[in-house]
Amino acid sequence: MEKIIVHGGNPLKGRVHIDGAKNAVLPIQAATILASEGHTSISNVPLLSDVYTMNNVLRFLNVKVDFDELHNEITFDASSEISSEAPFEYVSKMRASIVVMGPLLARLGRAKVALPGGCAIGSRPIDLHLKGFEALGATIEQHDGYVEATAPNGLVGTDIYLDFPSVGATQNIMMAATLATGKTIIQNAAREPEIVDLANVLNKMGAKVVGAGTEQIRIQGVSELHGTDHSVVQDRIEAGTFMIAAAVTKGDVLIEDAIAEHNKPLILKMREMGVSVTESDAGIRVIGPDHLKPVDVKTLPHPGFPTDMQPQMTILQLAADGNSSMTETVFENRFMHMEELRRMNAKYTISGRTVIMNGPTDFNGAEVAATDLRAAAALVIAGLVAKGYTQVSNLQYLDRGYYDFHKKLASLGAEIKRVNVEDDSIIVNQSSSVKHLNK
Ligand SMILES: CC(=O)N[C@H]1[C@@H](OP(=O)(O)OP(=O)(O)OC[C@H]2O[C@@H](n3ccc(=O)[nH]c3=O)[C@H](O)[C@@H]2O)O[C@H](CO)[C@@H](O)[C@@H]1O
Ligand SMILES: C=C(OP(=O)(O)O)C(=O)O
Fold this sequence. Notes:
Blueprint: E1 2-7, E2 13-16, H1 22-31, E3 35-37, E4 39-43, H2 49-60, E5 64-68, E6 73-77, E7 85-86, H3 88-91, H4 101-108, E8 110-114, H5 127-135, E9 139-143, E10 146-150, E11 159-161, H6 167-177, E12 183-187, H7 193-204, E13 208-210, E14 216-220, E15 225-226, E16 229-231, H8 236-248, E17 252-256, H9 264-272, E18 276-280, E19 283-287, E20 296-298, H10 310-319, E21 323-327, H11 336-342, E22 348-351, E23 354-358, E24 367-369, H12 373-385, E25 389-393, H13 395-398, H14 405-411, E26 415-420, E27 425-427, H15 431-437
Parallel strand pairs: 2-17, 3-15, 4-16, 7-8, 11-12, 20-21, 24-25
Antiparallel strand pairs: 1-25, 1-26, 4-6, 5-6, 8-10, 9-10, 12-14, 13-14, 17-19, 18-19, 21-23, 22-23, 26-27
Residues 23, 26, 96, 122-129, 164, 166-169, 190, 194, 307-308, 330-331 line the site of uridine-diphosphate-N-acetylglucosamine.
């Protein structure tokens, strides 16, 4: 078992590089299924376990996948005959595998994918994805843990209103509609930067998608798509995680090339707390104050405060002088990190979807276990300011979304290492263990 061991107290100082976004690259990997001709080369790919999992799903579907890890580039060739069925063994490893469904349905008129199931942070149904496919003319059947969509005569463009601006449903429907006959309009679409990145790739592949990044996306169907080149957008959540780590440690860090526009609500909330956040062409510079002011935050779909920054933000709120609140409106069960933080001396009460935190917290080092991806990052950040040693286990969650997190923090001055508890060895680089996990 691997653990991160951190000794708190060092302010973070320096510059940090941010990788390509997990939540952008996964649907882009799936989109390569749509290219019946040519290769698609995706660069700025983060070396994350989810990326390897998606590669394995695609390989199973008969897409040729060549990962040049040294250059963070993957080349996909989907020009051979593609299979329409993604089995449980692959889909169960990662919820986001559901986004292969739209491309398969578009290209083959059939997709059979194991139901992805819920996960720790909430129930996460896929009803909106399926309603969208049905509106495009597909027949949906669910049996034996699988969901099957069929449209033997192809999909037909239509108007679709999403009851909630679901990121995955918007991506799946957008991809399905690229090869449909006629025009599709998605109303109340998700507006996340990762949606825009996906639309850019689709357009480079020959699709006609306009309006991505707004609440109305219009897709004019085309008869076929081809390979292209694309560099993945920077990970705003990784950037935000380092912004919080810098602020809470009273540090001074430049998050290189970070796109301020993608992190607006976080920047504004941090400023409200008294953190100095400056935006420039070089990136976002964060300087933590001696005293943080309490603040109330509510998560919302983009451009609201991102749920994927919620656990990290609670660490900053717990450190503030006074009572802060966090209301989680996107996922119903995303406060599990709070229970672990109690062991580190956090004081709070949860009422429904809101947690009231009583700062300032005198964080104590403790042994804690990550319960999901962003919880893992939050616990490490708490460890950066805790007295003594904090040990964070369940790093398989962290590896889904952060590459060499401990190394990046160490380069900024944190006293941190990743160890293999069984044989006592120090892990220098995460990628070998991630690959091992994904075999
Ligand atoms: C790989 C990826 O990009 N993951 C992100 C994506 O997840 P994901 O695409 O799964 O998130 P959604 O936007 O779809 O989900 C948001 C909410 O809508 C609900 N819902 C969703 C679909 C559906 O058919 N029915 C339904 O009720 C979900 O249960 C959840 O409560 O967006 C989330 C919200 O920003 C982020 O936290 C995840 O990091
Ligand atoms: C919840 C997340 O991801 P996923 O949707 O892949 O579980 C996340 O990135 O914080």
